[in-house]
Prior knowledge:
Shape: globular
CATH topology of the largest domain: Nuclear Transport Factor 2, Chain: A
Amino acid sequence: MLLFAVASGFAAEDYGxxxxxxxxxxxxxxxxxxxxxxxxxxxxxxxxxxxGQGSVVFRDGPVxxxxxxxxxxxxxxxxxxxxxxxxxSRAGDLGLSAGPLVIINPGDDPDQDLxxxxxxxxxxxxxxxxxxxxxxxxxxxxLSMDVQPNFEDTRPVLEETASPLVAxxxxxxxxxxxxxxxxxxxxxxxxxxxxxxxxxxxxNSRVYLPGMAPAVGAEDASTVYGxxxxxxxxxxxxxxxxxxxxxxxASRELGYSxxxxxxxxxxxxxxxxxxxLRFWRLNAAGEWRIAVEVLSPY
Length: 298
């Protein structure tokens, strides 16, 4: 395994806990700069500054973000957000930020603002963090923006994660990640949402769903996930998962996937259809597990 790691250009000793904390701080700063720029120059221009090649946003399914934001016909409300949770790979090249979001009413009536959570995927190219995907879930009522991320909230998932030698030993890690993504979708049909997430989620998994606060921890996350799907689906109707894309960190212990889920027979007029964004970590047994699950119906 050590020979494989060296041949891949990365050795286990390259990934120390101090380095990972430094990457965590880098991503925290990038996300805050992005949020500040959105307020300074507007959502449209800030997105164009930070979006990376191959980035996606979600409408009726994932769409090319650069094409959407480069379009002369693009329109959208201004937004403001803050991170309350950050995760990053050992290699410092892939990460996630999540936190409260406000969609600002264009009529400057704060009573008409909308609130939710924004979950963003970041990829580092050279010395620059680029936005690769983001997905928002809305909730009723008000959310405070007075939050700050804490590395201690991230530490539990790091402790569940495979060692560098285990992570670097799989010759086809992206293939196994995609297969895990598809298998999780099938598992929902056979096990139901709660049991599927218990099987495929980490002990410290997080779930972001419309209408509720983030659920943290295997028991709470799986319970709300199962209850949400139960309210959206009839028990006898299976869902189909359309995996669209994803990316893997160079250190191979972390990756993300995205796409759409829908009930069989769903149409534009009726039936459950949802975008999903899924953040994965490899566990100590060398198996992919969901660290963050986001579902947003459309």
